[in-house]
Write a structure and sequence with these properties.
This protein is of the alpha+beta class and about 270 residues long. It has 5 helices and 11 strands. The chain has one domain: Alpha-Beta Complex (paralog of FGE (formylglycine-generating enzyme)).
């Protein structure tokens, strides 16, 4: 005869404690795939994402897709499989739509050094590209943890500093001093990066107080639009942000449907 579980306040409290422990009590990671760095309990991609269309992903190129999903794909692997990088010279993600529809088994986010980071994609497309690679967009908090130690820009020397004043994106990892304590490159400057979080769409910019950001990292979270789309958070600044770029740079004034040349992303696991 089966026993009946009585749902008492004590039982409810135990379940709540167990779920909280599972959600917040993860152990720090010891190792990540080669395309990522350890940041607490998260594997954060080492480089801003390049997005690739893989032909025949479920048949002749299924092993290439497996390598992408394991974080082992190289530029040579992608070339051998006939994959095409998207979002470099134009918005050429179709049939993967701005809404994220028709993107499954089509576009894949890859963390590679020495390639142009892909831009011109919406939040929805970025999330789909991460998902196809068995990753996801990082949360705002995860991104903040991984960026720690990246220099807060002053002038951009055009060679090793974070790319904040060049007028265009540079190849991933090419600015050798623009690296976080965890080993993630280009989290400041180059391209703004979508993160997972949404907020009421901001209508104005504020400032950081108390000397938290001495170089004036942008903080656009003031006000809240009452019509139209919500705001999807963008982090880090881009190639023309100047001293407005930095580890604390955050904007909530962009719709998730926005796709422009200065916005990219990176994934996490």
């Amino acid at each position: 005869m089966s026993k009946v579980l009585r749902w008492t306040p004590v039982a409810a409290a135990l379940v709540l404690l167990a779920s909280t422990a599972g959600a917040q009590g993860g152990k720090p990671l010891a190792k990540c795939p080669v395309d990522a760095v350890v940041s607490g309990t998260v594997c954060m991609d080492k480089y801003e994402a390049s997005v690739w269309r893989v032909p025949n992903p479920t048949t002749t190129n299924k092993n290439l897709v497996k390598k992408i999903q394991q974080g082992k794909a190289t530029a040579a692997n992608l070339a051998a499989g006939g994959a095409t990088q998207l979002g470099v010279g134009s918005d050429n993600y179709a049939p993967c739509a701005d809404s994220g529809q028709n993107c499954s088994d089509d576009i894949y986010a890859v963390s590679l050094p020495g390639v142009p980071p892909s831009a011109r994609m919406t939040w929805f497309q970025a999330q789909a590209a991460c998902e196809n690679a068995r990753k996801r967009l990082p949360s705002n908090a995860e991104w903040q943890a991984a960026v720690a130690g990246t220099p807060d820009p002053g002038p951009d020397n055009g060679t090793t500093d974070c790319n904040t004043a060049s007028g265009s994106a540079v190849s991933t990892g090419s600015r050798s001093a623009c690296v976080s304590s965890r080993g993630a490159f280009d989290m400041v400057g180059n391209l703004y990066e979508w993160v997972a979080d949404w907020v009421p769409r901001s209508t104005a910019c504020g400032t950081w107080s108390g000397g938290v950001s001495p170089t004036g990292d942008d903080q656009c979270l003031a006000g809240a639009a009452t019509t139209g789309e919500p705001g999807a958070l963008l982090r880090g600044g881009n190639f023309f942000s100047g001293t407005g770029a930095g580890p604390l740079t955050v904007r909530g004034d962009s719709e998730p449907s926005l796709s422009i040349v200065s916005i990219g992303f990176r994934c996490a696991r």
